[in-house]
Amino acid sequence: MSRLLQIYNSMLNFYGPQGWWPLTSCKNGSKKTDEPDNGKGYHPGDYSFPKNSRQRFEICIGAVLTQNTAWTNVEKALVNLRENKLLSANSIKKADVEILKKSIKPAGYYNQKSVYLKELADFFISLKGKVPARGELMNVKGIGPETADSILLYAYNQLEFVVDNYTKRIFSETGFFDKSANYHKIKEIFISKLPEDIVIYQEFHALIVLHAKLAFAGGKTGFRKTEILKFN
DNA sequence: AGCCAGGCTACCG
DNA sequence: CGGTAGCATGGC
Q1: In this structure, which CATH number among 3.40.50.10320, 3.30.70.2640, 3.60.20.10, 1.10.340.30 belongs to the domain A50-159?
Q2: C1' nearest to CA of A112: which nucleotide?
Q3: Which of A19, A92, A110, A159 would disulfide-bridge A42, Cβ 3.0–4.6 Å?
Q4: Does the global pTM surpass 0.90?
């Protein structure tokens, strides 16, 4: 077993399954899967999401809205979008851009992100339900490597490992690769050391984010190696 | 009062 | 090409 897989198993054992991607429109065990959840919207241990096209699209726009932005702010934006009936590709496509901006304002960068959401809606509609290729996803303005992989992994259950700043920071400081390693290089390292398993890809990224949030919490001072090494 | 958050684009040399 | 300023809000 690779060291990365050992770390994954330890983290999963310690924190438990995270149930990413969080959906405001899912309620675990509920028959009505398109109604607002009264909890956080997570579905730990249930890998049957997204259950429909609307949930798939919600993951896509959440992936854009959370760029360099705390998820708590994204949730506020998603609630606003829901209240304004703007959680579907068709409604965002038709939406007045000022209404759209106002809805997503809590998630920040609303001038940029409103354009990104419009582009994303057009693209989503053009897919007609098909799974997008990574390259065409990245041709959509506002979708870079991480957002593309998040969408593919969580919205389309494709085997793409997601590399974010936390992943880079934690695993470079613990010697898995150099700090200068680029996105593709880091992604390849994880892919080469892990089984080809969607659940592992989904949970590992979620666990890394959770762990990083806790390890860095309140802390300016850099990441402490002992925090990740305890999972070794 | 700052610093930070699950990045990306555009532009710089 | 690699590097980085700018984008914006809310939480701590």
Answers
A1: 1.10.340.30
A2: C7
A3: A19
A4: yes
